[in-house]
Amino acid sequence: LSTVHRGNVFEQKCQALLEKHLSMSLRRVGGKEDGGIDLIGWWWLPHNLLDQNTSSTDRKRIRIVAQCKAEKKKPGPKYVRELEGVVFRYMANDTESASFANPDAASGGPVEHSGVVGVFLSESPYTKSTLLRAMSSSVPLLLIHIPPLLSLGSDVTEPGSMIWNQALGGTGGLLRGKMDPRWSWKIPDSPESNPVGIPSLWFNGQKLSSWTPTSNS
């Protein structure tokens, strides 16, 4: 596969995974004028996560900007710095960013104005220095490692991972320390298939069902 085609395939894979398992509604941006953004959209989380006076069945949307890298080399700290820059530029140009808006935004839902979440998805695992850089950032960041699919029958399954920093998941962060990111394993349908790793969110000690307006319309 060419580098461009491989990148496009990985972006599609990332979009599908985030939408299916993490309650995100996204669209691909791409192109020379993408501002460093590969995916943009909304994260639909329990309303009472951010406002304790509301029902747990309601959802509030938070802006998501994501970058996807399908590279064999482990991403270094520079990628975190670049993502921080993308988030800051987006926030500075927020009023001009309406053209990026997802069609499902018209369905409504309160918007959390306290920040934009930067998501970085990599096909290779992160270096220790990259994780340390992300953990020390004041920007809400979510880092996900999505390993490539292995051939059927392989005895080795590379685990993925999902981690966020204190600015996002800490008690003083955007999610107020009320959620936990986990990497779960799905039992294969047949003995010939490998276990499938998937990211998941946990809220109040229970796995949070993925929900978006389009998936539940």
Overview of this structure, please?
This protein is α+β, with helices and mostly antiparallel strands and 217 residues long. The chain has one domain: Trna Endonuclease, Chain: A, domain 1. It has 4 helices and 9 strands. The chain has a 6-stranded mixed sheet with strand order 1-2-3-4-5-6, sandwiched between helices. The protein has a 3-stranded antiparallel sheet with strand order 7-8-9, covered by helices on one side. The longest helix has 19 residues. The chain is globular.
Helix-strand blueprint:
Layout (H helix, E strand, L loop, with lengths): L2 H19 L2 E5 L10 E8 L12 E11 L7 H16 L24 E6 L5 H8 L5 E5 L15 E4 L1 H4 L9 E8 L9 E8 L2 E2 L10
Parallel strand pairs: 3-4, 4-5
Antiparallel strand pairs: 1-2, 2-3, 5-6, 7-8, 8-9
Helix pairs in contact: 2-3
Radius of gyration: 17 Å
Coarse morphology: globular
Strand content: 25-35%
> Which architecture would the CATH scheme give at its second level?
3-Layer(aba) Sandwich
Order of helices and strands: HEEEHEHEEHEEE
Number of strands: 9
CATH first level: Alpha Beta
Helix share, percent: 10-25%
Number of helices: 4
Keywords: Mitochondrion
GO molecular function: nucleic acid binding
Organism: Dendrothele bispora (strain CBS 962.96)
InterPro entries: RRG7, tRNA_endonuc-like_dom_sf
Put the structure in a nutshell:
It contains four helices and nine strands.
Q: Main traits of this protein?
A:
217 residues; 4 helices; alpha+beta; Trna Endonuclease, Chain: A, domain 1; six-stranded mixed sheet
